[in-house]
Amino acid sequence: MKKLILVFVCVIMALSLSQVQAQKGKSNKPKQGHELIFHIKDSPDNLLYLVIHYNDKLIIKDSLPPVSPGLFVFKGENVYDDGMYSLVSEKKKLYLNFIIDNNQFFEYYLDTTGNVDNFYTKNSPENEEMLKFQRKTTQAQKLASEWGKKRKQFEELGQTDSAEYYQQKLVNINDEMMHFINEEIIAKHPDYLFSKMQKSYQAVDVPEFKTETGEIDRVAQNYYFKNHYWDNVDLADHRFIFIPSFEPKLKEYFLNFIYHTESDTLNKYIDLFLAKTEADTLMYHYCVDWLSYNFETDKIIGHDAVFCHIAKTNQLAGKCYWLDEDILAKYQKRVKRIEPTLIGKIAPELFIPDTTMSENPADWKSSYRTNKPYTILWFYDPNCPTCKKESKNLRQVYDSLERIGQRNFDVYAIGDNADLNLWKKYVKENNYPWINVGGNKGNLDYLDYFGIYETGNPAMFIMDNRDHRIILNKRIDMFNLPQFFEEYEKIEQRKREEGRAE
């Protein structure tokens, strides 16, 4: 049985969704309020929980004692959110999954065994359809289990004809179930939430694209799947927020399938996805918040650009009416802070004094003047243990590549400490062979520009010196630097080849 997670305090976002849904419900509900009556045969419960599915949790919407043994009545003037609900016993046992939709006045008869053959409902056509499906599924599972065992027995005996006979019966029962789902549920009741749920479970049918040589074109199939992943999900129906399958689909698509594509590609698919949700304010609200949170808190290199894109095209574009001025100001500040140092942006030329601490700006060291293809901007504090450790690791990589004539980067190391004597002593003692600057002077407030006030030290940025574009804006393991440059050059070479091909 699925492990139940009961959340007694609903998250703010779920509450706001519920409030908006309640307001909308006033105009389209034929009867205000709710009265849900459950007859649970042999129930020992002194308390019953009514919970709704939200994300990967079950959130308590109500709880009450029985009117009489086994009789529970949820009655009130408020309107519940449309979605999938569960009845959970006093001891956290799942009794029932059911749908609350436009009709919130019905009775349900069940028992504590979970045998749907004994369940029935009054005045709830959608839950009756759900019960028909559950009964047919239970029957099909019993037959499939029996035939699967027989197939295995005949396979072990080497009786292939009999094994194939039962294999065909398994295929037939699967086809029968799919026909039932498509024709008896989805086709007959397309607006039922349960019908839309069943459709959303179905995989996208990807055509067998072929290359010129007749082989399966995996690239074309992959492209088709990315663009049609949501075909079976009604993204203009906020009821999906309150069913258990929607959150896993979001994670599969955005945090798995397209997760490691370039930020521009991610932005394109996010825009296409959100455009499909905009017809339903609640769905759009949920999805834009979900995407913003996941990509803002992500640690993957380049995904900060995805967050900026989401914020600029949604929250900061005036689409998210539910955000107050303080929250919008925080989005504005966040984007303003990280946007200048996103991958692909041009890093400004820095002029900072070295350990001579010359007051003449003409003597200050430039971050652009280098003979190597790349420059590592290395921000550190000589009092920081991690900074000192990572600086030594950087030195090992620097020296090892220098010895074999393969060092393809220079280091522009920026000491950040108010005690100038401490910083100069540190540089002298370690005798680092790269450009050492510091003293908190310069042609611009580089600590602010690169976000060091916020992130702290150490911090790393890497520039491609051909055009001074930032190609890395997060610290990585120093010993992975050679691999990073190798992979970066492969990607750039592929881009050049693709550009010539076009």
Bin the helical content. 40-55%
- Main sheet strand line-up: 1-4-3-6-7
**Whole-number total of structural domains:** 4
Q: How does the overall form come out from the CA principal axes?
A: elongated
CATH topology of the largest domain: Glutaredoxin
Helix and strand composition category? alpha/beta
Radius of gyration: 31 Å
- Determine the N-to-C terminus distance: 54 Å
Uncertain stretches = 1-29
Overall residue-averaged pLDDT value: 90
* Major sheet summary line: 5 strands, mixed
Q: Strand-residue fraction?
A: 15-25%
Features:
502 residues, alpha/beta, Immunoglobulin-like, 4 domains, 5-stranded mixed sheet, 16 strands, elongated, disordered N terminus
Question: If you had to describe this structure to a student in words, what would you say it looks like?
Answer:
With 502 residues, this protein is α/β, with parallel strands linked by helices. The chain folds into four domains: 6-123, Sandwich (Immunoglobulin-like); 130-200; 234-341, no CATH class; 351-501, Glutaredoxin, CATH 3.40.30.10. Helices cover 44% and strands 17% of the residues. The protein contains 15 helices and 16 strands. The longest helix has 33 residues, at 125-157. 26% of the residues are buried. Residues 1-29 have low confidence and may be disordered.
